[in-house]
Specification:
Strand 13 and strand 14 form a beta hairpin. Helices cover about 45% and strands about 15% of the residues. The chain is α+β, with helices and mostly antiparallel strands. The protein has 16 helices and 16 strands.
Length: about 600
């Protein structure tokens, strides 16, 4: 116990060196009290016992309170727990009504704000946490203890936001690790109506010294645990990559492992569509983001698209307030800390990996950023290997086609030709009836030779079967193109989401219907709905289901529905139905939901 206190007490100093007009509250200790700038550990307890105690501000022996605080702060290795104990101990030590700890981010602004003394409802009513203005910013700019009789009288004071409880007296203490500031303690409103004293300030200095040791230990423990999780996750991902798992499986695993390693609330991966270049959500973990897999992200203005375009890591402590970009996902709560990594090198990024935490949580440390950067590199390798395997399969396919074409030409055609000649020789000596039958057979052999030669040509040139030309561009890309094309007419870009094997299960005829129905539905929204938001969902399972919804005025009674009748006719031709319903029947603007549903046809081969 004495040893823990000794760690804290050597930094106890007076504050008279900081005295001045703005810091006139830094009072010297009572007359006759000798306070050296560095208190030897052996005299620590004796010195504290010599400091006169104010019966109002210290109803019990302050030595015991400080010892309890030091032990409480030093107990445990979880950083979040340690930080909360520091604030609680500080409030108890100086008998304050309110306490807070502001952690500094990379930009030297408050990135995390922990409070004691206010309920969750009171904190929510105040609004966003402070970032470092006013008196709080003064302590960031000048990291020395600060004690005030009246917060509002300080030259740096900017007042309180609405719904903030009144606060008058104040004492602030910088927190350091290895000599560098990492945050500040803020205590306000001493109970009983008195002021914070010089003794309060010095006791907080002792707590701050102990807190720095506890925080550093907790940080080292967190780093050790993170690196252990990192090693395990790295091993699992590497085995999947080397085993030749599909890119989708690898990206799903990476999103899951990244969330655990980074202690993130949500992680996602997205890769660009090969035709349109729009980012499509490939995998997600946390905050029910899994339900949004298949969504197409906005073409510009998001953290993901900026990272993909620049190939440079983006990190922010508050994604909601960051002016550089916006967040595309629909999540239960606002995100604070967010980091987005490119999958690959600048100029050749194959996608992005993003990890976020709910607003109010700790920013990502440099170790977390490094670990997930390694995951992003593994994801890029997985995508590149998959592309290499696809190229190798295409080369193998071409070689097989060339071999088949050669065998057909050298063997099958020659044998068919010889068979035809033999039949012709037999026909010369046969009866007229038999000769006619043999002549028809020879004609069929000639037609077969012609078909084989056509097949050989297609195999050698890589031409796809007749009618497949329209399917070279997948339905997914065609739908994205249609949505982008209507953005100007709508005044916004409709949200887009895919579910299921859109490019492989939808036949060409149905694909043409889907594109036509989507074009008509978006055109109706642009011309008649007066909407500010629209969403497109294409799902493929047992049925092909296209859903287009908006928040517009709805379809008035008696309106001409010739366009909808055409869409219903298209559905009926494919054995399906069209449903048109209001989104919110009780709202002023009911909106419209159009659902076009047809069964997946089994008669035609799927798209390649």
């Amino acid at each position: 116990m004495i040893g823990l206190l000794a760690l804290a007490l050597p930094v106890l100093t007076t504050s008279t060196s900081a005295a001045g007009p703005a810091r006139q509250c830094h009072q010297a200790p009572p007359s006759g009290t000798k306070v050296p700038r560095a208190v030897p550990p052996a005299r620590a307890l004796a010195w504290l016992q010599e400091v006169p105690m104010d019966p109002v501000s210290a109803p019990r022996d302050r030595t015991d309170v400080l010892l309890e605080a030091v032990v409480g702060v030093s107990r445990g290795l979880d950083l979040e727990t340690v930080l909360h104990r520091i604030v609680e101990a500080a409030v108890d030590l100086v008998d304050a009504r309110y306490g807070a700890l502001g952690l500094l981010g990379a930009d030297n602004r408050i990135a995390r704000f922990l409070t004691v003394g206010m309920s969750d409802d009171e904190v929510a009513a105040i609004g966003p946490y402070p970032t470092g203005r006013g008196v709080l910013g003064e302590m960031i700019r000048h990291p020395v203890p600060l004690r005030l009789r009246d917060l509002s009288a300080h030259v740096a004071s900017v007042g309180f936001p609405a719904h903030h409880p009144p606060m008058r007296t104040f004492v602030g203490m910088p927190l350091r690790v290895h000599g560098s500031p990492f945050g500040n303690l803020y205590l306000t409103d001493k109970r009983g109506g008195g002021e914070f004293t010089a003794e309060d300030e010095r006791v907080l200095e002792a707590l701050a010294a102990s807190a720095s040791v506890a925080v550093e230990n907790a940080r080292l423990y967190d780093v050790a645990r993170l690196r252990e999780r990192w090693a395990r996750a790295n091993d699992r991902i590497s085995r999947h990559v080397l085993a030749g798992s599909s890119p989708h499986d690898v990206l799903t695993l990476i999103a899951s492992e990244a969330r655990e390693v980074a202690d993130a609330d949500v992680t996602v991966t997205a890769v660009p569509d090969p035709i349109t270049g729009r980012l499509v959500l490939q995998s997600a973990a946390g905050l029910d983001a899994e339900t949004q897999v298949g969504s197409v992200l906005a073409a510009d203005g998001t953290f993901a698209t900026l990272t993909l375009r620049t190939g440079v890591l983006m990190v922010t402590d508050d994604a909601t307030a960051d002016e550089r970009a916006s967040l595309e996902l629909d999540l239960p709560g606002p995100l604070g800390p967010l980091a987005v990594w490119p999958l690959g090198q600048p100029g050749s990024a194959r996608g992005v990996l993003a990890a976020g935490r709910i607003r109010g949580r700790m920013p990502f440390s440099s170790v977390v950023v490094e670990a997930l950067g390694a995951f992003a590199a593994q994801a890029a390798v997985a995508l590149e290997l998959a592309e290499g395997r696809a190229d190798a399969e295409r080369v193998t396919l071409l070689r097989d086609r060339e071999r088949i074409a050669r065998d057909l030409h050298d063997l099958a055609i020659q044998r068919l030709y010889a068979t035809g000649l033999a039949l012709q020789r037999v026909a010369r000596g046969a009866s007229p009836e038999i000769a006619a039958q043999l002549g028809r057979t020879v004609d069929e052999v000639d037609e077969t030779i012609s078909l084989v030669r056509t097949t050989i040509y297609r195999l050698q040139s890589g031409e796809q079967p007749a009618g497949a030309g329209a399917r070279r561009v997948g339905l997914r890309s065609r739908v994205i193109t249609e949505v982008d094309a209507t953005a100007a007419a709508l005044g916004f870009t409709a949200r887009l989401r895919f579910e299921g094997a859109v490019d492989t299960l939808v036949t060409p005829d149905v694909a043409e219907h889907v594109v036509a129905v989507l074009r008509e539905a978006l055109s109706n929204i642009a011309r008649h709905a007066h909407a500010s938001r629209a969403e497109v969902r294409l799902a493929v399972g047992e049925d092909v289901v296209l859903t287009v919804s908006d928040d517009g005025v709805g379809i008035p009674e008696g309106a001409t529905r010739s366009g909808l009748l055409n869409l219903a006719r298209r559905a009926a031709e494919s054995g399906g139905v069209l449903l048109v319903t209001p989104v919110n029947p009780d709202a002023v603007q009911t909106g419209t939901r159009l659902e076009w549903r047809v069964p997946v046809s089994q008669d035609e081969s799927p798209e390649p």
